[in-house]
Design brief:
The complex is a heterodimer of chains A (about 375) and B (about 575). Chain A is built from 9 helices and 20 strands. Chain A has about 375 residues and is an alpha+beta fold. In chain B, β1 and β2 form a beta hairpin. Classes of the chains: A alpha+beta (about 375), B mainly alpha (about 575). Chains A and B meet through β6, α2 and α4 of A and α20 and α21 of B.
Chain lengths: ~375, ~575
């Protein structure tokens, strides 16, 4: 078990900055995810933690001990590779025993440790199988057992679920979480799947183009995204562009081509730029006919564009300022607005989007 | 400065890699660059006959291109002409065969498709000898025809240029055959269906759609045949003609003691070959036809007409029989007592004496032993160097920029240089003692033979090793390190076991080819280390055809066994788990 500190690490490949001055502190026993689109630097960061890449600048510390220059085989991290990287010429047992043999443990201890690790992932009955005869899910579990068998200080997981089919991914995900809780091992998890990151992590870091965007708990990040990138990347988002008008005394107004929103007083999020992006999530939009505004909500006028059935709800596509916004509405609301029909004619019918002020976010781009 | 910094970190963090790369570069410099540059230097060196003063000039090249003694120029044009004709004939045989055996389905087609690669089983020298026994004045075919037609002189005697062309076509059409076959197998059948759907006829389908897609394969094969024909030594040597050939001219110049001219000729021949390799690479990189669509190759057309089926099976049988004629001849000849078969069409007595004799006396066993130990030493060295080069190139990003590419080019360079030229380069480089040969002159020793075998076959070993290594998932090595294995343990327990089939394939292939190596051997051997190929050749001179055939058959069997082993290992190779 170990704490991990990344102190301003940087890495470039040629002219491309893969990771730019990254500072992170990961607590002992924490399940920490690095999340971002491909090419965001998350895998490079993981590889620097494992020692496969050396940072150009900055330091990496495990429990206050600097490991920046240590070779991969001296770091005691356990890594599960995206394609598992099981040794195809060895059996399940020998794959899991590999790390213990590298540590020159006595044979009796190796047998006990391997058995224990395989039992953790319920693979002990297949110990003598060649790994080439395992299914994808079984291979994944052997890879995990192999990483755990050496009792690593840190568990590094590089998109370990991405090669499994959807159902298996879901069950493996919860198994992984349970196992991590039970062992209390510091775990760093790289993924591009936001749902996975939200479900598994104690905390997560969002990266884009090698730059850290935000660190926080899943809830913090979903509810209070630091910027438009984070808001767009995590969950669905509607974005409207507008201009800030400060001429109204005391407060300010944000104006789009066909809408305007007034803010009495100066909220802490008062944008300094003139061009701003107004963002809100589809589940926060209420639809209705023209009604008088309440102080709690802002009203934006749009037109129906299309309608999609999603089982538990409907997704309404609405045209605002020539762009599209999405609202997530219930069966009842849909019935009240459009009747029993399952479609809507584009551009014909007006609709009012009502968004609670506390769910509105401003970003300057 | 940057390079220096990287080398320093390399030295500090990976002393093992650093030492390996440095040693590797030193070995390659001494065995490949040193001889070739010495050759270049010697081709430019002049000694003033009066003063004895040394200088540099293009005087030997002037002799090469002189119109007053045009032997060299004639040789150059002879080599070029024979090479172009070889390309043409090989294409005419190889491409139709490939189409016939891949696009049509008829009884025996699968077997024919395999048998068509048979010429690969014959070492160049053995192939040439088989044709000699078949087609020469006293050969089986002319003699049989003479009996049948009762002519005064044997008809259809092949010598000189026609014989050389026949041997070249036989040996080299395989390039066209294999490359065309692979290209045909890689074609997307839906393209043809699309063309037919758009109303293309059969003619337009072939010339408008299929052949353009085969172009990279055809050009690649043409270049390979051209290079091999330029380098060809054995056929011109045995079927001497009034045409001159560059490879032979080098040999003659060396025999006459005119080393400077031999050097100039070698430089010209090597330059042409190297240029071709670069053009080939450039073309390959530029014209690698991207596949727009993923699709499956056209299924072989099942012929339904009885007549068609019969015609194709008959044609296939005849062609295959013709292709096997050299092997069959050797097989027959191997069981004939030396000198007993002179006038009859077929021999009347058979014996296994020839095979017993192969190992019966010191005189006949010695060439085997010489070739075995020299080939084994050369290939063992090659295995180590090829492995080191592959691993070093793999660690490319840790090396100073350009080193990985330099390593690869250096290792593959001998592939582009004809065997005659390599032998000549080694001769001039090691005719004088050096500090790194511990003050010995290598010319006239077995060491130079070993060196020649090593240099000539290193590319084969490197390719096989590199191909196996390229299939290896780099994450496996990282996984081993992550689990605590040092570089050596990761190599020994993970990398080596996984690439071993490829390494063995390369080693075995190089070994059997070295066993039959003739082109360099004939220039480098001494009576004390006479190798197998030279022994076979002198038996041929003595017209002990039975012994020649027995030697050849044994060699061909060895090569066949080695290739079969290689094929089996290729099949076993685990390409890693596909997750």
């Amino acid at each position: 078990m170990a704490r991990v500190r990344l102190a301003g690490i940087e890495k470039s490949f040629g002219a491309v900055a893969a990771v730019a001055e990254l500072h992170l502190d990961i607590a002992e026993g924490e399940f920490f995810s690095l999340l971002g689109p491909s090419g965001c630097g998350k895998t490079t960061t993981l590889r620097m933690l494992a020692g496969f890449e050396t940072p150009d600048r900055g330091r990496i510390l495990f429990n206050d001990e600097e490991v920046t220059a240590k070779r991969p085989n001296q770091r005691n991290t356990g890594m599960v590779f995206q394609n598992y990287a099981l040794f195809p010429h060895l059996t399940v047992f020998e794959n899991v025993a590999f790390g213990l043999r590298a540590r020159k443990r006595p044979e009796s201890e190796i047998a006990a440790h391997v058995h224990e690790a395989l039992q953790l992932v319920a693979m002990h009955e297949l110990a003598q199988r060649p790994v080439t005869q395992l299914s994808g899910g079984q291979q994944q579990r052997v890879a995990l057992a192999r990483a755990l068998a050496i009792k690593p200080a840190i568990l590094l997981l590089d998109e370990p679920l991405s090669n499994l089919d959807a159902k298996l991914r879901y069950t493996t995900r919860s198994e992984l979480k349970r196992l991590q809780r039970r062992l209390g091992i510091t775990t760093i998890y790289v993924t591009h799947d936001q749902e996975e990151a939200l479900a598994l992590s104690d905390r997560l870091a969002i990266l884009n183009h090698g730059v850290l965007q935000q660190v926080g708990t899943p809830e913090q990040i979903y509810k209070d995204p630091a910027n438009l990138f984070v808001m767009n990347f995590i969950g669905a988002t509607n974005v409207l562009s507008g201009r800030v008008d400060r001429s109204t005394g005391g407060g300010f107004t944000v104006k789009g081509a066909s809408w305007q929103v007034q803010f009495p007083g100066a909220p802490e999020a008062l944008p300094t730029a003139d061009e701003v992006q107004l963002a809100f999530r589809p589940e926060h939009v209420r639809l209705g006919e023209a009604e008088a505004p309440t102080g709690e909500e802002v009203l934006i006028e749009g037109q129906w564009h299309s309608l999609e059935y999603a089982g538990t709800h409907w997704l309404a596509q609405l045209t605002v300022d020539g762009g599209l916004c999405t609202a997530r509405i219930s069966d009842e609301v849909k019935l009240a607005l459009l009747g029993p029909q399952a479609w809507v004619e584009a551009g014909r019918k007006k609709v009012i989007l009502r968004i609670p002020r506390r769910h509105l976010r401003f970003f300057t781009s | 400065m940057v390079q220096f910094k990287i080398s320093r970190t390399l030295l500090k963090r990976h002393p093992f890699t650093f030492a390996a790369v440095a040693a590797l570069l030193a070995v390659l410099a001494l065995t490949i660059y040193f001889p070739l540059s010495t050759m270049l230097l010697e081709s430019l060196r002049t000694v003033d006959p009066q003063t004895g003063g040394k200088g540099f000039s293009f005087v030997h090249f002037a002799r090469f291109f002189s119109l007053r003694s045009p032997e060299s120029l004639q040789a150059l044009s002879g080599s070029l002409k024979i090479s172009l004709l070889s390309v043409l004939l090989s294409a005419l045989v190889g491409v139709p065969l490939a189409i016939l055996f891949t696009r049509f389905q008829f009884p025996g087609q699968k077997l024919f498709a395999v048998l068509a690669t048979l010429p690969m089983l014959l070492p160049p020298l053995v192939g040439v000898i088989a044709f000699f026994i078949l087609m020469d004045e006293t050969g089986i075919v002319p003699r049989a025809l003479q009996h049948l037609l009762a002519t005064a002189t044997p008809p259809l005697v092949m010598r000189g240029v026609p014989a050389i062309l026949l041997v070249h076509t036989y040996s080299f059409y395989v390039f066209f055959y294999l490359l065309t076959r692979n290209a045909l197998a890689g074609l997307d059948h839906s393209l043809e269906e699309a063309a037919l759907g758009l109303g293309a006829g059969r003619w337009r389908l072939w010339f408008g759609v299929i052949l353009p897609q085969l172009r990279p394969a055809l050009i690649g094969a043409a270049m390979l045949v051209f290079m091999n024909s330029m380098a060809s030594f054995t056929a011109p040597y045995l079927f001497r003609d009034d045409w001159r050939f560059l490879s032979l001219e080098i040999y003659n110049a060396k025999l006459k003691g005119d080393l400077p001219l031999a050097m100039a000729q070698s430089v010209v021949l090597a330059s042409i070959s190297i240029m071709f390799v670069f053009v080939l690479r450039w073309y390959g990189n530029r014209h690698a036809l991207g596949r727009v669509s993923k699709g499956v190759a056209a299924p072989a057309r099942r012929l339904t007409g009885r007549g068609q089926k019969f015609a194709l099976t008959a044609a296939g049988s005849v062609i295959t029989l013709l292709l096997m004629l050299p092997q069959l001849t050797l097989l027959l000849m191997a069981f004939v007592k030396n000198g007993t078969w002179t006038s009859a069409i077929l021999p009347d007595t058979f014996t296994i004496e020839n095979f017993l004799e192969l190992f019966g006396s010191r005189k006949t066993a010695e060439p085997w032993l010489n070739s075995l130990w020299m080939s084994a030493t050369a290939t063992a060295l090659g295995t180590v160097i090829a492995l080191a080069a592959v691993l070093a190139a793999h660690r490319g990003k840790r090396l100073p920029p350009g080193i990985a590419g330099l390593l690869e080019i250096s290792v593959m360079l001998p592939w582009a240089v004809p065997g005659t030229v390599i032998a000549m380069a080694l001769i001039v480089a090691f005719i004088t003692p050096h500090w790194f040969t511990a003050g010995h002159t290598l010319v006239g020793t077995s060491a130079i033979m070993v060196l020649a075998y090593f240099v000539r076959h290193l590319p084969i070993q490197f390719r096989a090793t590199a191909a196996a290594h390229a299939q290896l998932d780099p994450a496996l090595d990282e996984a081993a390190q992550n689990l605590g294995a040092g570089g050596w343990m990761a190599f020994r327990r993970v990398t080596l076991p996984l690439i071993l089939p490829g390494v063995i394939t390369g080693t075995v292939t190089a070994f059997v080819i070295a066993l039959g190596e003739f082109v360099s051997s004939i220039l480098l051997f001494t009576p004390s280390n006479r190798p197998l190929s030279v022994a076979i050749f002198s038996e041929l001179r003595d017209f002990d055809l039975g012994s020649v055939a027995a030697y050849s058959i044994l060699l061909a069997v060895l090569i066949g066994a080695a290739l079969a082993l290689a094929q089996k290992l290729q099949g076993q190779q685990q390409p890693g788990l596909t997750a």
